[in-house]
Design goal:
The complex is a heterodimer of chains A (about 400) and B (about 800). Chain A is α/β, with parallel strands linked by helices and about 400 residues long. Chain A has 2 domains: about 30-155 and about 175-230, Nucleotidyltransferase, domain 5 (2-Layer Sandwich), CATH 3.30.420.10; about 300-390, no CATH class. Chain A has 15 helices and 6 strands. Chain A has a 6-stranded mixed beta sheet, sandwiched between helices. The longest helix of chain A is centred in the middle third of the chain and has 26 residues, at about 210-235. The termini of chain A are far apart. With about 800 residues, chain B is α/β, with parallel strands linked by helices. Chain B has 5 domains: about 55-265, 3-Layer(aba) Sandwich (Rossmann fold); about 270-435, Rossmann fold (3-Layer(aba) Sandwich), CATH 3.40.50; about 450-510, Arc Repressor Mutant, subunit A; about 520-575, no CATH class; about 585-789, no CATH class. Chain B contains 26 helices and 32 strands. A 7-stranded mixed beta sheet of chain B has the order 1-11-18-17-14-16-15, sandwiched between helices. In chain B, a hairpin with a 4-residue loop joins strand 12 and strand 13 (about 290). Chain B is globular, with a radius of gyration of 27 Å. The chains are: A alpha/beta (about 400), B alpha/beta (about 800). At the A-B interface, helix 1, helix 4 and helix 7 of A face helix 19, helix 20, strand 20 and strand 21 of B.
Chain lengths: ~400, ~800
């Protein structure tokens, strides 16, 4: 580009509004480029009388604060908050980049911590924190290796609270479900700007709330993990409001994962059924009722509880439109195959058939498919009955 | 006085030969029958050229060689062998070949050969459009299947499903994508592409000639970023460019790559004899310079081919024209018992499956004639047809050759006929065939160091990896650019490194296809569900989408109901009207700095003042600020361009900081209004001729004039880059000043109109009765002799 530096600066200024900031200070302060703030609390003080769960003894809880929320390679984690249980204590460690050049050293320290644990526990870490750390590891030529397991609590949070709370942000969950109240918490959207201010001024005072916020978040993970385990694995009822269906699904998954299929698995399945029944009972939305009933039915089938299965579907016959027809189909199936009353089944199918015709007349888009299913089943059934 | 034209000038011949004329007989008739021949301004015969071959080189992997043989390739064309040789030597190269001459093998051969020897290596293919990438993957896949080797080639673009993306990132040997995707999705996530970047051995950049102007300047910066990431991962890929014929393929490739690139331009593919003819439709109104409509002439001409069952392709410049041609062709076909299914249209907006069906029909002969837009111009395989009609000059010599190349077989005779419209460019070309057939003067121009474009990409580069002080990224102004980004809180300097610290994903804000990042979105509200139909950049918005404008998009007319300037939204609805609108924009130009003559780096003289020793008058170039103030718009009829109404435009003025070329005239003893007509006429003809030399769209070049310029103290004509910061047009024009003036003179002198028409100096209503004569006079008497001195 032609021109003296004067005109160049002017031209650059035309690219946008130049905010004339005070001359940027290159970090001139002493000390290492990255520092660790360590904080220990007696586990008893933290957990009350309970002992920490043995699985948590080999877990690392992690939450990062970054220079941006966009992701990609150019987002720097400037504060990595860790929590772990060691020697009867809950330890929090915060790795802080006093200068950006400390990143490789910080990632190195983090790599050592990660290597020593079995499980990484995060909130939205699968999509946010971990990919960023992984990318920064590659960029700083200190590649990180993930522990064998990564437990992202956001999945459980979505199942438990998305419907009743309309959100599953950690800050909302901790207030509503964990009963934790933060005071003077920093607005997450402000954090990247506060850090940039710090880089330019060297004044870390305004970052104190960020440290507090991060420490709080990572301890919150510990709480949340413990509570979720109690609700899901120990069958304890969570405080209201909660999504019982979501809890039921989480319990079903735990049951499926339980190695001890006989006793623990059965107990977990029972807990799951309880949760699903609590979800079904007050539910008004026919689509959701159908979904919950479809989750419950396999449990009853597997235990050969045919009368209860029949009761479940017969109750759903009280629904309307396609939901009623679907419930009729299931009821008919149960009569036919489980209760061995094909004649009842045929009667029910005839009822369904009449209803489908109404739907067909109204031009309902799924009616045609239901019509086909009902007719096919009726045909097979009557053929069988005639053959007798 | 015009002689009455017979309904079909070939009718005599037809009755003589009957309905089974060969291409040769049709061409003879066209060339000799006066009714046609009078309007043919060029008849260029390209002699038959035998193929030149070399054996498949010995160091080609045996598996690859036998796969080629089983595909019927026993030997290579000389240029393919040469490309392979250079690629093996490790040098970057650019291959220049006409349509259908085995271009893809020039890169597939070295790439596959390397992949067979070292399966961990990777290649990245860049194509300018998605459709082309699909085509190339299909072709590559065929070859790979024949190889029976585990080589995975896949396209990675916006349509690639999520699961496939992960597989391609880690396991794809050949990743086929486009520059936009590389810029916005791959480079910013380079850590996920570890395998690719660590092992990247080849980068293929196809259709190099499309990377010019603003787009090319952006792509040059994307390549800078790509190479920077490769350096980080320790790979140094070799780049293979391919290009259609332009005058500076080597220069353009080297400008994009900033390294030496070897040139392969000696095409060894055979071709049969070919006739290239220019046809200028007769003038039907001499006063207004109006000629017979090119579309209807094309219909008549095509009829001769269609009824003789000669496979034909016709290229139209717009979607609408393409549809009109299709209709005409079908009418001709049905008159000769040819089923209408054998006539097809092909343009953007057709579904991919429809396109594939037409391409197949063309290859196997089921489709006899196709009317297409330039959607078919780029390397899509449709086999080779016998005749091509170019309805309107495609805009550049390069695309003319590409379109003409669609007709042509390895042995038989073929023909390409260009039918001119009344546009100045068309008229210049058909009346000066020597320009077209001579050494191609078109050059692909880029300016990767355009400050706006550079700054956008420095941001992206910093996001991808911290920038080290002393690191090279384009020009020496990098530290200043970084200082600016620091002041914007986008980067932070520490220990001699610049770290990205902004909370935003920078590639999102940078579109490779325009210099300005701000656009006005055009929303169609005709249907209950509003739909975005397009975008225009902020600078052109006042002239294109002001309220009550007729906005044309893909041949559809839209009426602009409302322009929300602050929100950058224009609300439109579909209409069909017989007029178009043109906005009057008061343009004010201010010279900031004039570059010293002869200074290759364009060093500036003192701003706002001519430098010492400068002769007042004559050509110059420099930095300018252009201010636009839209005033009124006019409604003009589509057919005759008659004024049928007007209205005011209420919009804020906007400014553009760019580079300009200007020409100060000597003082002339003519009245003010005549001087004005002269200046309008000169700028009109200069701008169109300049677009020809610059290989750009005439709209990329702004033009204005001042009766008395405060800068030059003379009447002055300005041509400026229509993009912020400029992409190098002004400097190029300054250097080609003499050629541009001579071409403008020839354009005006050869135009048969009386005193001005849109084909030369502009309509007589604008230039006045003396505009044309004065322009010619001053060019001949003063400007050209001065330029020659």
């Amino acid at each position: 580009m032609p021109g003296s530096s004067q005109t160049l600066a002017d031209k650059l200024a035309m690219l946008g509004t130049v905010a004339r900031s005070p001359a940027a200070r290159t970090a001139g302060w002493d000390g290492p480029a990255f520092e660790v703030r360590r904080n220990r609390r007696d586990a008893g003080e933290f957990f009350g009388r309970e002992q920490p769960h043995p699985a948590d003894a080999s877990a690392l809880f992690l939450d990062t604060e970054t220079t941006g929320l966009a992701g990609g390679t150019g987002t720097t984690p400037f504060l990595v908050g860790l929590a772990f249980v060691a020697g009867g204590e809950v330890v929090t460690e915060q790795y802080f980049l006093r200068r950006l050049s400390g990143e490789a050293a910080m990632l190195d320290a983090l790599r050592e911590r990660l290597a020593a644990v079995e499980t990484l526990v995060t909130f939205n870490g699968r999509r946010f924190d971990w990919p960023i750390l992984e990318a920064r590891g590659i960029i700083n030529r200190t590649p990180l290796e993930a522990p064998p397991e990564h437990h992202d609590l956001i999945g459980a949070a979505r199942r438990l609270w998305h419907r009743p709370l309309g959100t599953y942000r950690l800050s909302v969950i901790e207030r509503q479900a964990l009963g934790i109240c933060r005071v003077d918490d920093v607005d997450a959207a402000q954090i990247p700007g506060l850090y940039l201010d710090y880089l330019r001024t060297g004044d870390a005072a305004s970052l104190e709330p960020v440290f507090e916020h991060n420490r709080h978040d990572v301890l919150c993970l510990l709480h949340l993990r413990r509570k979720v385990r109690r609700w899901v694995e120990d069958g304890v009822d969570p405080p209201q409001p909660v999504d019982w269906e979501g809890l039921g699904v989480l319990r079903l998954r735990a049951a499926a994962a339980a190695l001890d299929g006989d006793t623990l698995g059965r107990a977990l399945t029972g807990d799951a059924e309880n949760a699903l029944r609590r979800a079904l009972e007050p539910e008004d939305d026919p689509a959701v009722r159908w979904r919950i009933a479809s989750r419950l039915a396999p449990l009853l089938r597997r235990a050969a509880r045919w009368e209860e299965l029949l009761a479940l579907w017969e109750h759903e016959v009280g629904g309307r439109g396609i939901w009623r027809i679907r419930a009729l189909l299931e009821t008919a199936k149960t009569y036919d195959r489980r209760i061995r009353r094909p004649d009842r089944a045929l009667k029910i199918l005839e009822e369904a058939c009449g209803l489908v015709e109404w739907l067909l007349l109204r031009g309902d888009p799924v009616a045609a498919e239901l019509d086909l299913r009902v007719r096919r089943r009726m045909m097979r059934l009557s053929r069988r009955l005639e053959a007798r | 006085m015009h002689r009455r034209r017979p309904a079909c000038p070939l009718s005599n011949l037809c009755s003589y030969y009957g309905d089974g004329m060969t291409l040769e007989q049709i061409l003879t008739a066209l060339h000799t029958e006066p009714a046609w021949a009078r309007h043919i301004t060029a008849w260029h015969q390209v002699p038959e050229r035998p193929g030149r071959y070399e054996p498949i080189p010995g160091d080609v992997d045996g598996r690859l060689a036998s796969a080629l043989r089983s595909a019927g390739i026993e030997r290579l064309y000389t240029h393919q062998a040469q490309a392979f040789e250079i690629a093996r030597s490790g040098r970057h190269l650019v291959v220049v070949t006409p349509t259908a001459s085995g271009k893809t093998l020039c890169y597939n051969l070295p790439v596959l050969n390397t992949l067979l020897a070292a399966p961990q290596t990777r290649a990245l293919y860049l194509f300018p459009t998605k459709a082309l990438s699909m085509d190339q993957v299909d072709e590559l896949q065929t070859l790979v299947t024949a190889l029976e080797a585990d080589i995975k080639a896949a396209t990675y673009d916006g349509d690639t499903p999520g699961a496939a993306r992960r597989a391609i990132r880690t396991a794809g040997h050949v990743v086929v994508t486009n520059p936009d995707m590389l810029h916005a999705a791959i480079l910013p996530h380079h850590t996920k592409w570890l395998r690719l970047f660590e092992n990247l051995r080849y980068v293929v950049v196809d259709e190099l000639h499309t990377y010019r102007g603003v787009f090319g300047s952006h792509v040059a910066n994307v390549l800078r970023r790509l190479r920077r990431i490769c350096r980080f991962y320790g790979s140094t890929p070799q780049v293979i460019f391919t290009s259609a014929t332009i005058s500076n393929p080597k220069e353009l490739a080297e400008r994009l790559l900033e390294e030496e690139v070897a040139l392969v331009d000696d095409n060894g593919a055979p071709s049969g004899p070919k006739v290239i003819a220019f046809y200028n439709p007769p003038v039907i109104n001499r006063e207004m310079g109006i000629r017979r409509d090119a579309l209807s002439e094309a219909g008549r001409l095509a009829g001769e081919f269609i009824r003789n069952r000669i496979p034909l392709i016709a290229f139209a410049r717009s979607r609408r024209a393409c549809e009109l041609l299709t209709t005409r062709f079908r009418a001709v076909a049905s008159g000769h018992q040819i089923p209408p299914e054998r006539i097809a249209g092909y343009r953007a907006g057709y579904l991919p499956s429809e396109r594939r069906a037409i391409e197949k029909g063309l290859r196997n002969g089921n489709v006899l004639a196709v009317a297409a837009t330039n959607a078919l111009e780029l390397g899509i395989d449709i086999g080779r047809l016998q005749a091509a009609l170019l309805v309107g000059y495609p805009g550049t010599v390069a695309s003319t050759w590409q379109q003409a190349g669609r007709a042509g077989r390895t042995q038989d005779l073929s023909a390409a006929i260009l039918i001119a419209t009344s546009d100045p460019l068309d008229q210049y070309i058909v009346r000066h065939p020597e320009y077209f057939f001579g050494q191609s003067p078109e050059a692909g121009l880029v300016n990767p160091d355009n400050l706006y474009i550079l700054t956008s990409h420095v941001r992206c580069a910093a996001f991808e990896l911290p920038i080290e002080s002393g690191e090279r990224f384009g020009p020496s102004t990098l530290p200043e650019v970084l200082d600016y980004l620091q002041s914007q809180r986008i980067v932070h300097r520490e220990d001699g490194r610049w770290h990205y610290v902004a909370d935003a994903y920078p590639a999102q804000d940078v579109s490779l296809r325009s210099a300005s990042t701000e656009n006005v979105v055009i929303i169609d509200t005709t249907d209950p569900a509003p739909r975005v139909v397009g975008e225009v950049d902020l600078a052109s918005a006042p002239g294109l989408v002001h309220e009550d404008a007729i906005y044309l998009h893909l041949g559809q007319q839209y009426h602009v109901d409302r322009l929300e300037w602050e929100e950058r939204k224009a609300y439109v609805h579909r209409v069909e009207v017989d007029y178009y609108t043109t906005a009057q924009i008061a343009v004010d130009i201010r010279v900031l700095a004039e570059f010293a003559p002869g200074a290759a780096d364009g060093r500036a003289a003192a701003p706002g003042r001519p430098h010492d020793g400068m002769v007042r008058g004559g050509p110059a170039h420099g930095e300018v600020v252009v201010t636009y103030r839209p005033t009124i718009f006019k409604k003009l009829t589509l057919e005759q361009h008659e004024n049928v109404g007007w209205g005011p435009i209420h919009l804020p003025e906007s400014t553009l900081h760019t580079t300009a070329y200007w020409l100060a005239l000597p003082e002339l003893p003519v009245p003010q209004h005549e001087l004005q007509g002269l200046l309008i006429g000169l700028s009109h003809s200069l701008a169109h001729v300049a677009a020809l030399f610059l290989m750009c769209d005439p709209r990329d070049l702004g033009r204005t004039y001042e009766v008395h310029s405060p800068h030059t103290d003379r009447p002055t004509v300005f041509l400026y880059d229509a993009y912020p910061g400029g992409v190098g047009f002004a400097e190029r024009l300054y250097r080609m000043h003499h050629q541009v003036l001579s071409a403008a003179r020839d354009l005006i002198a050869a135009c048969p109109c009386d005193s001005g028409c849109p084909s030369c100096v502009g309509p007589v209503l604008e230039v006045g009765s003396t505009g044309k004569a004065l322009a010619l006079e001053i060019l001949d008497a003063r400007l050209i002799p001065d330029a020659r001195r």
